[in-house]
Amino acid sequence: MRLVLFIAIIVLCGTAGDIAVSHAMKQIGEVHPLTPAVILGVLARAFRMRWMWIGIGLEAVGFFSLLALLSWADVSVVVPATALSYVTGACGAKFLLNEKVAPLRWAGVLLVCLGVALVSIS
To answer: Is the dihedral of CA 7, 103, 100, 41 positive or negative?
Structure first.
């Protein structure tokens, strides 16, 4: 039960953090040209945004949960199970960020689910 809980925390917090950071960066816009001055300006704007800090916090929770999980569970189980973040990422992109997710990507998501299922059976 503890294993499932920590995998859920890792997957959900990591994906939610990615979505929050993506939302913040979409508000800022494309980083162009890639010069040090432009990058520093984008970083300054990004770190003034609430969604950026929410994303960083959620990703930190996911990362530290991963560290804790790896301290007592086998990496051969943990890493494949955390691949479920690809599933939650595609769903979040589609339903929260309103991105188009191509049918081929959904097929990839299905393959990831099958792979995780195979690993969890053993």
So the answer is: positive
Q: Is 72 exposed, middle or buried (0-12, 13-18, 19+ CB in 10 A)?
A: exposed
pLDDT recorded at residue 120 = 83
Quote the tokens at residue 42. 């984008």
> Distance between CA atoms of 103 and 19, rounded to whole angstroms?
20
Please give the model's pTM, rounded to 2 decimal places. 0.89
DSSP 96: T
Q: Taking Cα atoms as reference points, which of 67, 62, 60, 73 lies closest to residue 12? A: 62
Q: Where are the domains of the chain?
A: 2-121
DSSP 8-state symbol, 56? H
Q: DSSP 3-state assignment of 99? A: coil
- Is the pLDDT score of 119 beyond 90? no
Tokens encoding 113? 């689910």
30-78 pLDDT, tens digit per residue, is: 988 999 999 999 999 999 999 999 999 999 999 999 999 999 999 998 9
Tokens 């393959």 locate to 111
Tokens, residue 65:
């949960």
